Structures are given as C-alpha cells and as structure tokens.
Amino acid sequence: MEPPSASPRAGRGPWQELLLSLLTFWNPLTTAQVTVESVPPNAAEGKDVLLRVHNLPGDTASLAWFRGETVAPVHQIVLYVVDTRVITPGPAYSGREIIYPSGSLLFQNITLNDTGSYILQIINRKFETALVRGQLRLHKPSITSNNSSPVENADSVVLMCEAQTQSTSCLWSVNSKSLPDSPRLELSLDNRTLTVHGVTRNDTGPYECETRNPVSADHSDPFTLNVLYSSYHQGANLSLSCRTASNPPAQYSWLINGRPQPSTQELFIPNITANDIKTCSKGLSLSPILGPCSPNSRGERHSLTAA
A Gene Ontology molecular-function term (predicted)? Predict the structure, then answer.
C-alpha cells in the first residue's frame, strides 16, 4: 500500500471553502477512465480495505471522499488538496480512514457500518468536477432455512450456512455452544448444511455458523427456528378452524390419519384423550377444496402435544 503524504489537519481555509461551495455548481469533468476498485472485493470484519482509484487525471486539484449516495458537506470523510498536500478530515471521518495522493482511500479495521456506497469527488485546475462511485462490501456468512415454520414432531429442517467463498471450513453452534451429539442432528460432508430431524420446540436455537480460512474467521448473525406446536390438557375440548379467502367460497375437508371427518369449516373434538393427542400429532391435516378462482388457498397441518 502506498504511504500517505501528509497527516489530517484540522480547520478549513478559504481554498477548501471554495471547493465545498462548488458542490452544487459544477461542470462535468471527463473521467471515463477513472474507476474505483475495492481491494479485497469482499473483506472480513476487522480487516483493512482499500478503495483504490485507477487513472486519476494529471490536472487534479483536489480530492474528496463522501459516504453514501449524496455529495453533501455532512457526509464528507476527507478532503485532499494536491498542491499543498493538506488533508482535512470531514464530519464523516471516523479516524480509521487514510487518503493517498492517488485518491485511494484506506479503511482500517472495518465494521459492518462501513459497508455501502462511497463517492469520490475530483476537481481539476479549471474547477471542473466529476464524481466517481465505489462500493465497500463486508463478507459475512448467513443462515437460510428450507422451512420457515416447521411443525413439531412432523417436519425436518435443513439449515444452510451461506458464504461467498467456498475455500473455508464451517463450524456450527446452538445456544452459543457446540452442537450436541444427537442422532437428530446431521451435518453434510462439507459442514455447510445442518439437518434437524423431527424438529421439536426445544430445537428453536439460536443457531450460528462460523466460516474460517487461514487468515480470518467470520460469524453469522443468530438464526432462530419458529417451531409450530399447540399444547392441550387431557379432557379439554379441542376446536380447530380453517379459513381461506376465495370466491366462490371454499369447501373444507378434514382428515385425521387419513380418515375423513365432517366437511365443515371447524373441527370440534370434545374431551380429548392422550390417544387423541397422539393421533392428531401424527396425522391431522386439513385442506380447503379449491374453487376455480382461489388458486392461493392452501392447507395447513397442526402438531398437538399434551401439556
């Protein structure tokens, strides 16, 4: 990396004030060859990232970096005047940015808040101005699921650790601890996929995955399963209702372990027993019979357990 030629200096002189006044009154400078490249393209949190400027015009008078999508004084990170080599930090300067004579901007010890768009303002000696945009991206693994609302004792859930690079190892944790030794938890050969067989309410999580390579390690945000279940006492009355928006009105059919039940919108089971609970947990399903104008109607399943 190229060393900076000067240190940031507080205050702003008439020359800097003049440059800022040109933010809203400028003529376009031809910068077709000027580009900004992020090095590396996707960095890990806590590392350094350089927004490298290529093909800076030789008649550049000043350079200024801004955070976000708009060029405004409040968003200015730093201003560099070429002739005097004076560096002036702006309101958006965090103390971790270094500007180089080439216009490149170094971010030290990046955080998630550093990600996003940046604008480099270039002013030449004719006071013509151009804007060049750059992007800073932070590599962070994430967890996705094949089932957003699994039913207790009925569904299995597949959790996937999504990472932008494949040349990393993956470690899983649940409730901030290593995965327990359980036959219901199955890892793929590359550890990127975790399958929870026969999910229960105790499997909600939170889950985290960590990706590692020889130089860094990155954690995903916690992921919590939304496990559906209902709890009933023996002897209670159970009432289930199925509703759907359709025109013409939908007809409803109920099945318990494959056995048809009354074709009504509500299913009532009085004085439920332990056997009823077990049966419903394994085999209760409901579905509206779709009319020709109700393609979005859908059935649901319930899992019942004894309290």
Answer: protein tyrosine kinase binding
